[in-house]
C-alpha cells in the first residue's frame, strides 16, 4: 500500500483548456519508447549526451503516448504561472479535465489507460547527463513521475486491467513531478508550444519527428533542416531496422499529417536525407484557455 502524498505543498489545477506546452529536452533526445509494450532498455550516447532508460518488464518503458500526460500537466502548470498563481511539483487534478486537455475520451477504458500510463511513467527510470546542472554534477536517476496517488473504489473482482483496484475518476488524482522535469517546465525558455493536432498522430515515429522538429527550433527560425536517415534512426532510439524506419518515414512524408511541418526524403551527397520544412500553409495553433483561479 502506497504511503499518502503530503498535502502541504499541493498545486490544485483549475485551468480550463490550457495552451499546450512541452519540455524541449525531452523532444530532442530518445527518452521514450516509440512503440507500445517495449521492455528493452533505451541506451543513447553521442559526443555530449548520455541517456539510459529502463523499466521492470511487468510495466514496460514509458511511451510517447504516455508522455501526453506530462504535456497536459506541464500545460496546466504553465497556465497557472501565466496567471500569477504559485505552482508545485505536486499537482492535484480532475482526471476528466486532464483527458480532455490531451484530446482523449472519458470512458471507463480511458481512465484505466490513464492510470496505467501514470504507473509506467513512475516505474520508468532515467539516468542522463542532460540538465546535469540541476544535480550539481551528481548522477541522480529519476522517474518521469516521482509519486502519485490514484483513488480507487471498491470492486469485488480484480481483473488484469484493474489489478490495483478500479481507479475512481470522480475524485482528484495526484501526481508529483521530479525536480529535473519541474525545473525545466518552470524555466520558461525550456518549454515550447504544441499544436493540438499532435495528439491525433497515431504513429510513434510521426510523433517523434514532430517533436524533434519543434525542439530544433523550426517554429522560431525560417528555413529548412536536414537530417541523414541513419543519424535520425539512431537519434530516435527506434528498435526497427534502418530499412523499416526509412519506409515508415517515407509513409509519413507521403501522408503529410504532421502539424506545422512538412518532411521530404531524398538522396543528398550519397546519403538518404530527411528535410524538415516549417509549413506556413498548414493550420496554425488555435488560441486556447483562460485561467480561472
Structure description:
- The protein is built from 8 helices and 14 strands.
- It has helices at residues 24-28, 67-82, 95-101, 108-123, 179-186, 204-216, 229-236, 242-255, and strands at residues 11-12, 21-23, 42-45, 50-54, 90-93, 125-128, 147-149, 152-153, 166-167, 173-176, 191-193, 224-228, 261-268, 271-278.
- A hairpin with a 2-residue loop joins strand 13 and strand 14.
- It has 2 domains: 11-193, no CATH class; 200-278, Orthogonal Bundle (Arc Repressor Mutant, subunit A), CATH 1.10.10.
- The radius of gyration is 19 Å and the shape is globular.
- With 293 residues, the protein is of the alpha+beta class.
- A 4-stranded mixed β-sheet has the order 1-5-10-7. Strands 3-4-6 form a 3-stranded antiparallel β-sheet.
- Helices cover 30% and strands 19% of the residues.
- Residues 1-6 have low confidence and may be disordered.
In short:
InterPro entries: Replication_initiator_prot_A. This is Replication protein A. This protein is 30% helix and 19% strand.
Keywords:
three-stranded antiparallel β-sheet; 8 helices; 19% strand; 2 domains; Replication_initiator_prot_A; 293 residues; four-stranded mixed β-sheet; Replication protein A; alpha+beta; Arc Repressor Mutant, subunit A; disordered N terminus
Largest sheet: 4 strands, mixed
Arithmetic mean of pLDDT: 87
Distance between the termini: 33 Å
Beta-strand percent range = 15-25%
How would you describe the shape?
Answer: globular
Total E-strand runs:
14
Helix content: 25-40%
N-to-C series of helices and strands:
EEHEEHEHHEEEEEHEHEHHEE
What structural category do the secondary elements indicate? alpha+beta
> Order of strands in the sheet with the most strands?
1-5-10-7
> Could you say how many structural domains there are in total?
2
What radius of gyration results from the CA coordinates?
Answer: 19 Å
Number of helices: 8
- Report low-confidence residues grouped into runs of 5 or more: 1-6
Amino acid at each position: 500500500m502506497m504511503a499518502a502524498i503530503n498535502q502541504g505543498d499541493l498545486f490544485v489545477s483549475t485551468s480550463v483548456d490550457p495552451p499546450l506546452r512541452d519540455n524541449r529536452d525531452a523532444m530532442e533526445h530518445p527518452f521514450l519508447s516509440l512503440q507500445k509494450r517495449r521492455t528493452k532498455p533505451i541506451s543513447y550516447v553521442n559526443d555530449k549526451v548520455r541517456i539510459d532508460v529502463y523499466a521492470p518488464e511487468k510495466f514496460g518503458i514509458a511511451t510517447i503516448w504516455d508522455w501526453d500526460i506530462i504535456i497536459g500537466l506541464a500545460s496546466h502548470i504553465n497556465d497557472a504561472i501565466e496567471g500569477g498563481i504559485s505552482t508545485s511539483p505536486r499537482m492535484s487534478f480532475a482526471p476528466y479535465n486532464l483527458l480532455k486537455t490531451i484530446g482523449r475520451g472519458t470512458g471507463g477504458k480511458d481512465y484505466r489507460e490513464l492510470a496505467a500510463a501514470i504507473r509506467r511513467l513512475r516505474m520508468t527510470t532515467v539516468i542522463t547527463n542532460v540538465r546535469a546542472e540541476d544535480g550539481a554534477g551528481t548522477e541522480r536517476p529519476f522517474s518521469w513521475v516521482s509519486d502519485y496517488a490514484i483513488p480507487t473504489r471498491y470492486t469485488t473482482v480484480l481483473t488484469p486491467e484493474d489489478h490495483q483496484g478500479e481507479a475512481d475518476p470522480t475524485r482528484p488524482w495526484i501526481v508529483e513531478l521530479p525536480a529535473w522535469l519541474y525545473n525545466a517546465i518552470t524555466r520558461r525558455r525550456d518549454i515550447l508550444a504544441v499544436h493540438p493536432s499532435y495528439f491525433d498522430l497515431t504513429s510513434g515515429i510521426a510523433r517523434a519527428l514532430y517533436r524533434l522538429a519543434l525542439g530544433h527550433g523550426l517554429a522560431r527560425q525560417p528555413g529548412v533542416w536536414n537530417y541523414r536517415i541513419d543519424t535520425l534512426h539512431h537519434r530516435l532510439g527506434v528498435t526497427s531496422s534502418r530499412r523499416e524506419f526509412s519506409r515508415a518515414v517515407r509513409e509519413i512524408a507521403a501522408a503529410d499529417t504532421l502539424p506545422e511541418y512538412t518532411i521530404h526524403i531524398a538522396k543528398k551527397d550519397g546519403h538518404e536525407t530527411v528535410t524538415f520544412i516549417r509549413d506556413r500553409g498548414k493550420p496554425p495553433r488555435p488560441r486556447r484557455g483562460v485561467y480561472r483561479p
